[in-house]
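Notes from hallway chat w/ T.B., transcribed later so I don't forget. T.B. wanted the structure written out for a chain they're using in a teaching module, and asked if we could keep both sequence and structure tokens in one place. Agreed to drop them here.
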Amino acid sequence: TLFRSLQADLTHASTSDSAALPMGLSARAKVRQTSATLTAGYAFAPTEAAGVDLMAGLRHWEVSTAVDVTGIGSARSKFSFVDPVIAARWRQAVAPRWSTLVYADTGGFGVGSDATWQVLALANYQARDNLFVSMGYRHLSVDYREHGRRLDVDLSGPMLGLTFLFGKGHGAAALP
């Protein structure tokens, strides 16, 4: 069976740090990044309990940085870029109302960043006919260098998610 697949995700990270500098000065730095990924493609269901999706899309990045040195001055930078991505996703039913999902994408290709990629593994619980609650682990990476700006970041950690299925006939065997 073949059907269309659409996926969106949003990631936000904010970090800051302070440090003492020579001559009694102090500095504070702050970095915020937000990425939004939208992919679409086709989902293949080789069996009732398994599915694979092949997708392509875009990942939009927003980055802002600020450095303040007490008594000296401050500098701020804000930039954004868009990466093309290709992705694959494996879905597997493991018990009534429970399934797993493994997702990987890669992109950038020098269009926006030099490279971006992510992998995630999730356990999903079917809370309603068309609603899944997910938890798992994710790693997201980007390497961007342009116009004297550099963003070389790896984000890893636990994640929570919700999946909504649109359409008819999902039932208990549905996979997110």
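Follow-up for T.B.: Confidence is low (pLDDT under 50) at residues 169-173. Might be a good example for the class.
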